[in-house]
Design brief:
Structural class: alpha/beta
Helix content: 40-55%
Number of helices: 12
Radius of gyration: 24 Å
Oligomer: single chain
CATH superfamily of the largest domain: HUPs
Strand order of the largest sheet: 3-2-1-4-6-5
CATH architecture of the largest domain: 3-Layer(aba) Sandwich
Largest sheet: 6 strands, mixed
Number of domains: 2
C-alpha cells in the first residue's frame, strides 16, 4: 500500500493501532473464500466507516492468500473502490473527486466515480439508496468484481432494527442487514463507529462528515441522534450491541422459515397454477404468509409495496373465508379463491382495457 501523508506504516516495528487491527481482521475474515486474483470493490463515501474499510482492504486484499503468513500479492486479491456522487449537495462533484484521490493514494486500483440521478420513489432516503445500489451493481458487472464491500457498522445495524420495530415489521425486516448478500459483503457489522473513527485517526485519514447524517428530516438521523441515546439512557449501555445480536438471531430464524416456506410452496402448487387452499391453511401462519408473499411478488406485486395489511387480506381468503372471492394487491395483482385453489394473477395489458376501436392491429 502506498503511503499517504501522515500515514503510519506497520514497518515501524510497533504494529498497527488496535482499532486498525480490528478493522483489518474484520476485512480479512470477510474476504475469506474469494477467488485468488479476483477484484473486490470498496464502496466509499469518504465517511469514517467506509474510509477505514477502504484502508483496511487496501492492506488486506493483496495479503489474502492461503496460510497464516501473508501471501505474495499475486496470490491475493485486487482491491479497487467506487465512490458515488448523488448530486444532492453543492460541491458534490469536487467532493467525489477528493474522495477518489484519497482512495488512489491508499493504493486502491481501479478507483471509479459513479454519478447517479436520484429519483423520488419511496422518499429521498430510499431513492438515494436505490440509485446507489444500481450504480454499484452496474460497475461491479462492468469490472467483473467478485465482491463489493460496504461500510455498515454495528450501530447502523441497531438503527435498522429500531426503524423496523417502529414500522411493525416482521422477522425478516428485523433481522437487519446480512453480512453477505449476493456480491455484497459487510465486514464491519460487529464493530462500532467509535472503532472506525479511531482507525481513521490512527492512520491520519481525514473522513468527510456527510451533513445528511445529521439532518433530522431523515428518520435514520433522528434514530441516531435521539432514539438510540434515549434508549441507552433509559435501559443502560449496550443497547446497540443487543439490537445487533437480536438481528443476527432473527436472521437465523427467518432463514429457516424461508426454507420451510419454499418447500411448502412446492407442495401446495397445483398443476393449473393455483395454490391448494386446504394445504395452505394447514401451514403455520409464519410459513403460510411467506408462501403468500412470495407468490404475490412472482405474480407482479412490487416487493417494497407489499405491507402486512395486504398479506392479512390475502390470508383471510384462506383462514377467514366467508364468501369473499378476491383481494386486490399492489401492482394490480388480483388474488381469487376458486374451486379450492388460490390464484394470483398479474393485471391484464393496458390494451385490454381499451374499447375495440382502440385495440392495436395484429
Amino acid at each position: 500500500m502506498r503511503a499517504i501523508k501522515g500515514y503510519r506504516s506497520d514497518n515501524d516495528g510497533v504494529g498497527p493501532h488496535p482499532a486498525v487491527a480490528a478493522v483489518r481482521l474484520a476485512v480479512r475474515r470477510s474476504l475469506a473464500g474469494l477467488p485468488a486474483g479476483g477484484l473486490v470493490l470498496v464502496a466509499c463515501s469518504g465517511g469514517p466507516d467506509s474510509l477505514a474499510l477502504a484502508a483496511a482492504t487496501a492492506w488486506e486484499a493483496p495479503h489474502s492468500g492461503r496460510g497464516s503468513r501473508p501471501a505474495q500479492p499475486a496470490e491475493g486479491l485486487r482491491a479497487g473502490a467506487v465512490t458515488v456522487d448523488h448530486g444532492l449537495q453543492p460541491g458534490s462533484v469536487e467532493r467525489a473527486a477528493a474522495v477518489a484521490d484519497t482512495l488512489r493514494r491508499l493504493g486502491l486500483d481501479p478507483v471509479e466515480v459513479a454519478t447517479v440521478e436520484v429519483g423520488r420513489a419511496g422518499g429521498p432516503e430510499a431513492a438515494a439508496r436505490d440509485a446507489r445500489y444500481a450504480a454499484l451493481g452496474d460497475l461491479a458487472d462492468h469490472l467483473g468484481a467478485a465482491a463489493v464491500l460496504l461500510g455498515h457498522t454495528r450501530d447502523d445495524q441497531a438503527e435498522t432494527v429500531l426503524l423496523g420495530l417502529a414500522r411493525g415489521s416482521g422477522a425478516r425486516s428485523l433481522s437487519g442487514m446480512a453480512p453477505v448478500a449476493g456480491r455484497y459483503r459487510r465486514p464491519l457489522l460487529d464493530l462500532d463507529r467509535a472503532t472506525t473513527r479511531s482507525a481513521c485517526t490512527a492512520e491520519s485519514l481525514s473522513p468527510w462528515e456527510d451533513p445528511h447524517n445529521g439532518d433530522r428530516a431523515y428518520a435514520r438521523a433522528r434514530v441516531r441522534s435521539d432514539a438510540l441515546p434515549a434508549v441507552e439512557r433509559a435501559l443502560g449501555p449496550g443497547v446497540a450491541v443487543a439490537l445487533a445480536r437480536t438481528a443476527r438471531l432473527l436472521r437465523d430464524d427467518a432463514d429457516a422459515l424461508d426454507g420451510w416456506a419454499r418447500d411448502a410452496a412446492t407442495r401446495c402448487a397445483h398443476p393449473d397454477g393455483g395454490l391448494d387452499v386446504a394445504a395452505l391453511a394447514a401451514l403455520p401462519a409464519a410459513v403460510r404468509r411467506r408462501v403468500l408473499r412470495h407468490s404475490a411478488v412472482v405474480a407482479g406485486a412490487p416487493s417494497g409495496a407489499l405491507a402486512a395489511v395486504h398479506l392479512e387480506v390475502l390470508d383471510a381468503l384462506l383462514t377467514n373465508w366467508h364468501g369473499q372471492r378476491e383481494a386486490q394487491l399492489p401492482g394490480g395483482v388480483r388474488a381469487v379463491r376458486r374451486c379450492g385453489r388460490l390464484h394470483l394473477s398479474a393485471p391484464p395489458p393496458a390494451s385490454a382495457h381499451l374499447p375495440p376501436e382502440h385495440q392495436p392491429e395484429e
